[in-house]
Design a protein that fits this description.
The protein is α/β, with parallel strands linked by helices. It has 27 helices and 15 strands.
């Protein structure tokens, strides 16, 4: 378990700049004074957490050096990991007394370390057995390899890319990776670089184990894997392979095909060795289910007139249901075909409890909540029809497919009228207007007018004014640029347009929230409640108000089990996946003290219920609500100011203010 000061380092690791003590205190659920204490503890062996007027930040170089020291040190966790690695390599086990002496600890201390080893082995498919002074591991080779992978991830420096650590441990991996990406493209596969690192790690571990004379059994030979179910052991929390699960290739013939040939060739070229049929089949299966999906062109060529995937009809039906439920146009054959090919690999991974991690999961949930919600709908239908679990990372991959499709088809934004004010001199004013027109999206109308038009009402008809001189009298939303605008000038124009659109959305959101949240649907206080308790409490308020029935609350609890609705830090937006409310309403609870919400700490819980007639409203309110309260300062204002219902209305009104946009 991490020390308290290590929690501070974890919180600072993703940030590129300074983080205030207040923000860190909120995130860790402690006081600012405690943050100072954590920083002092972290710096006991040399400064790794810098402090200043702007807050705290992590010295990444110093932390990497500290981590290297910790890994070679003699803390209980380090010793336990070292013993596990030794046990994995030792076919005949270890002598307890010799190993204690080698680790420079007493026999009693080493016995305590063995207790930590036993705890770490729980759920891995491996067990520690002892006969007299000797201890050994029992369990299949695949479980040993997956445990090695888990240990590698645990020991990777926080805040550093896992790939960097992998390259340091296995230098040949960098060239192998580049060649593999090129080879996949040439073979007609679209690579998934997010899942590729797991394949590289398993490849490096496989080569290391083969060199130590610990290959996998031959394909089709039950061997040490006999009787082990492929889904009986849950995946690790980080999405890694379940350490005790059956290898994906068990019972299958030796690997054949372009991916197997590619892997065999590249292993020989970059590592100067070969692997047996079982290892090659295992690595090929990992590659084809995690990091390589056939392109549409390749799939069409392979299908020869048949459906590209047997799941195309299923995916088409599920996508049609999502389109109807959320009023989003997903009716596109290329999108359905691509998603079906992805689903083939997803089902293969899920059936083996071998999920692919997605480093973008949290950011997708926070930045694109509606897209993520569409992915949850699709995932829930896949889970029901295919009989498989689908975790958050896999939902995020579906969201990436949905988001890419919608981005290609959606309108770029709301209509905005931009007036370019410049004196007429030859064609300079025309060239300026054309530069502005080319720099903005298709929903922006650019009109031309001279500076002398400022007082005749023309400026009032424009949403944004782009001028080469400061207007007199002053005009709202004006951007002053050069007659020959630089890229920085054009970026300021785009930024002002974005700010205008955002202000409009915030105004509509605040007005909608004020009408949706009745006094009886506001609650001050969450303490003593867990996640389900908070949903039931707000649901009871809505039931009493005649908005929903008990089935809607049950639906919200079921939706929560699919994927946490803590879309951002501090904010959870529970809801059912059906729009069965009698009328659209929101019940909201706020508290200074956060409650645990599936691992997140939230101060604001908003149970949203939409009526069937409010499906169009759901899109904007849902997206904009999450966007508005993804900003920490908005959440803090709401928590501090919404002491009662009038205070809540005042904070919602704040969203409409220009500085709040």
């Amino acid at each position: 378990m991490a020390e308290n000061w290590e929690r501070l380092v974890e919180a600072l690791a993703p940030a590129t700049g300074w983080t205030t003590a207040a923000a860190l205190a909120d995130r860790l659920g402690v006081t600012s004074r405690t943050i100072r204490n954590y920083a002092a503890q972290a710096n006991a062996g040399g400064t790794v957490v810098e402090s200043g007027p702007a807050g705290y930040r992590l010295d990444r170089a110093a932390w990497a050096a500290r981590r290297a020291t910790l890994r070679t040190g003699s803390t209980p966790a380090v010793r336990a990991a070292r013993v596990i690695r030794s046990l994995i390599d030792a076919s005949d086990g270890l002598d307890v007394y010799e190993t204690a002496a080698a680790n420079h600890v007493s026999d009693s201390t080493f016995e305590a370390d063995l207790g930590r080893v036993r705890a770490r082995l729980e759920g891995t498919g491996l067990s520690l057995v002892r006969q007299g002074p000797r201890v050994a591991l029992e369990g299949p080779e695949t479980a040993r390899r997956r445990l090695l992978g888990a240990l590698f991830r645990e020991e990777s420096s926080r805040g550093m890319l896992e790939l960097d650590a992998l390259r340091a441990a296995f230098p040949e991996v960098a060239g192998f990776r580049s060649a593999l990406l090129s080879g996949l493209a040439e073979a007609g596969y679209a690579p998934n670089e997010y899942g590729l690192n797991d394949v590289l790690l398993h490849t490096a571990i496989a080569l290391d184990r083969v060199a130590a004379n610990h290959p996998l059994d031959e394909p089709g030979d039950a061997g040490s894997e006999a009787g082990r179910g492929s889904t009986s052991v849950p995946a690790d929390a980080d999405g890694a392979d379940p350490a005790g699960a059956q290898p994906p290739d068990a019972g299958r013939p030796a690997a054949r095909g372009p991916l197997a040939e590619l892997l065999a060739r590249l292993v020989a070229e970059h590592f100067g060795t070969t692997v047996g049929p079982a290892d090659l089949a295992h690595l090929t299966r990992l590659l084809e289910t995690r990091a390589a999906t056939r392109t549409l062109a390749t799939a069409e060529s392979d299908a020869a007139g048949r459906p590209l995937s047997p799941r195309v009809p299923l995916v088409r039906r599920i996508v049609a249901g999502a389109s109807s439920a959320y009023l989003v146009d997903l009716d596109d054959e290329d999108f359905i075909d691509r998603l079906a090919l992805h689903v083939d690999n997803l089902v293969a991974r899920a059936s083996e409890a071998s999920y692919s991690r997605n480093p973008l999961t949290a950011s997708i949930k926070a930045a694109y909540p509606l897209i993520y919600e569409l992915a949850v709908y699709i995932a829930s239908e896949l889970a029901r029809t295919e009989g498989i679990p689908v975790n958050d990372d896999e939902i995020a991959y579906i969201a990436m497919h949905v988001g890419a499709h919608l981005d290609r088809r959606r309108s770029r934004g709301e209509a905005v009228r931009v007036r370019v004010a410049a004196p007429i001199y030859h064609d300079v004013h025309l060239a300026l207007a054309e530069r502005i027109r080319a720099a903005v999206d298709d929903d922006v109308t650019v009109v031309l007018g001279s500076d002398e038009d400022e007082g005749d009402g023309a400026a009032d008809a424009a949403d944004v004014v782009v001028s080469v001189l400061d207007p007199s009298p002053p005009v709202d939303r004006v951007v002053v640029v050069s007659p020959f605008p630089s890229e920085a000038d054009l970026e300021r124009v785009r930024t002002e347009i974005s700010r205008l659109r955002r202000a409009r959305r915030r105004t509509r959101l605040a007005a909608a929230l004020s009408s949706y949240i009745a006094p009886e649907l506001f609650v001050r206080g969450l303490r003593g409640l867990d996640r389900d308790g908070a949903i039931r409490m707000l649901g009871d308020r809505m039931i009493e108000a005649g908005v929903i029935d008990r089935s809607y609350v049950d639906g919200a609890l079921e939706r929560e089990r699919l994927s946490s609705t803590a879309f951002t830090e501090h904010l959870a937006v529970p809801h059912a996946m059906t729009m069965s409310a009698r009328r659209t309403a929101i019940a909201i609870a706020v508290d200074d003290a956060p409650i645990d919400w599936g691992g997140a700490k939230v101060n604001v819980v908003a149970l949203i219920a939409f009526a069937e007639s409010g499906r169009a409203e759901f899109q904007e309110v849902f997206d904009q609500f999450v966007e508005a309260f993804s900003e920490r300062e908005n959440v803090q204002r709401l928590v501090q100011g919404a002491r009662d219902y009038p205070g809540l209305l005042a904070e919602l009104a704040h969203l409409m203010e220009p500085h709040g946009a």
